[in-house]
Structures are given as structure tokens and as C-alpha cells.
Design goal:
- The protein is built from five helices and eight strands, in the order βαββββαβαβαβα.
- The chain is of the alpha/beta class.
- The chain has a single domain, classed as Rossmann fold.
- It has a six-stranded parallel sheet with strand order 5-2-1-6-7-8. Strands 3-4 form a two-stranded antiparallel ribbon.
- Strand 7, helix 4 and strand 8 form a beta-alpha-beta unit.
- The longest helix has 15 residues.
- The radius of gyration is 16 Å and the shape is globular.
- The protein starts with a strand and ends with a helix.
- The structure holds pyrazine-2-carboxylic acid (VGL) and zinc ion.
């Protein structure tokens, strides 16, 4: 069984959103092509879904500005602009994304005391989401991921997939993803490659 995992393709991470990733919206048509013609049996989407008092928001830390480094529950934490607050337009999927084709939506980042870049578990690894269990129940053997942002949620999800779904072949679809920081994207790709994650292009998948 082949699964496609679409990470955080939400208004908040696209131009005009509260934590925009440059050219983030360019991946939407590619994601739709993969959904339609990528040969997947299961389509999953993650959704960053924060309460308005989430502790990753710089606005909750007096004296901190967005993108400063700070602390959350004793751990180093990037201070983000308020983003993807539950029930707001910022948290909705991009309006052009083919959400009807999505079989399972995994929301994350609901605990105000910890951030959750990965769609599989919180950053402190204390609590898992239901995603690994869902994919195991679907008997998924191949998992391709893409989305926003390469250097945060996509990378952490890919690394957790390798750790939490032993035996599953994991691949990152580079052209169907965009990142926040160009240097961060380079090291994220190197780190994923080091962990055995395949780096592929949508063209290869759509041609196969
Ligand atoms: C993300 C920062 C904060 C992401 C989510 O989706 O990559 N990045 N929350
Ligand atoms: Zn977030």
C-alpha cells in the first residue's frame, strides 16, 4: 500500500498567511497532480492546529519577537508569529487543494505547552498523534511526503516516519515542498538523505 502524506498545506504557510513560506502556494497544483495520478492508495494531510494561546507564539513571550529563539516548557523553541489558530482562515487548507480526496486528516499542535512539527508526535516525543497507527492499520509499505515547510514540519515528519514505521520506505518529494530558510532546507535534505529517505521529484512519480 502506497500513501501520500501532505504536510500543512494551509493558508497560514502560503503567501498572505501569518507564517508565509516563500512560494508555498506553488506546490498546490503539484500536490493535486500527485493526489490524482501518483498511484497512491491512501492520501493523508496534516493540519497545524493551534489554540490561540499556543506557547510557540512570540506574542505569549514578553520581549520576544517572531523568529527569535526562546523557550517553551524548558526546551529551546523558535518564537513564531501567531499562526494556524483553530477555526481561523489561516488554519484552513489552501482553497485549491483537493481536500475531498484526502482519506485522513491529522491535526497537531493542540497542546499549548509543546510544539509539534511532526505529524507523528510532539517535539518532546512524549505524546504521539494517531497517524502512525492509522498508517499501520492501512498496511502502508511506502510513504511519500511533501508540503510546508521542508525545514520544519516536513523534515520532522519524515524522520519520525522512518523511526516509527520500521520497514516502510519513506521518500521526500522535493519539488512539491517549500522551506522557510534556504540553508535550513539544504541541511534538512542532507539529514533526510542520511537517514535513508529517498529524495524524489513529482515528475518521476507521475511518470512511473
Ligand atoms: C511549521 C513552524 C511552526 C510547519 C508549523 O508547518 O513547518 N513551522 N509551525
Ligand atoms: Zn505551528
Amino acid at each position: 500500500m502506497k500513501a501520500l502524506l501532505l504536510i500543512d498545506i494551509q493558508n497560514g504557510f502560503c503567501p498572505g498567511g501569518n507564517l508565509p513560506v516563500a512560494h508555498g502556494d506553488e506546490i498546490v497544483p503539484i500536490a493535486n497532480q500527485l493526489i490524482e495520478g501518483g498511484g497512491y492508495n491512501v492520501i493523508v494531510a496534516s493540519q497545524d492546529w493551534h489554540p490561540e494561546n499556543h506557547g510557540s507564539f512570540a506574542s505569549r513571550h514578553p520581549g520576544k519577537k517572531p523568529f527569535d529563539m526562546g523557550e517553551l516548557s524548558g526546551q529551546k523553541q523558535v518564537m513564531w508569529p501567531d499562526h494556524c489558530v483553530q477555526g481561523t482562515t489561516d488554519a484552513e487548507f489552501h482553497p485549491d487543494l483537493n481536500v475531498e480526496a484526502v482519506d485522513y486528516i491529522q491535526q497537531k499542535g493542540e497542546n499549548p505547552a509543546v510544539d509539534s512539527y511532526s505529524a507523528f508526535r510532539d517535539n518532546d516525543q512524549a505524546a504521539t498523534t494517531g497517524l502512525a497507527g492509522y498508517l499501520r492499520a492501512q498496511q502502508v509499505t511506502e510513504l511519500d511526503l511533501c508540503g510546508l515547510a521542508t525545514d520544519y514540519c516536513v523534515k520532522f515528519s519524515a524522520l519520525d516516519a522512518v523511526e516509527m514505521l520500521p520497514g516502510v520506505k519513506v521518500r521526500f518529494i522535493e519539488d512539491a515542498s517549500r522551506g522557510i530558510d534556504p540553508e535550513g532546507v539544504k541541511s534538512a535534505i542532507a539529514e533526510m538523505r542520511d537517514k535513508g529517505i529517498g529524495i524524489v521529484s513529482s515528475k518521476d512519480i507521475l511518470a512511473a
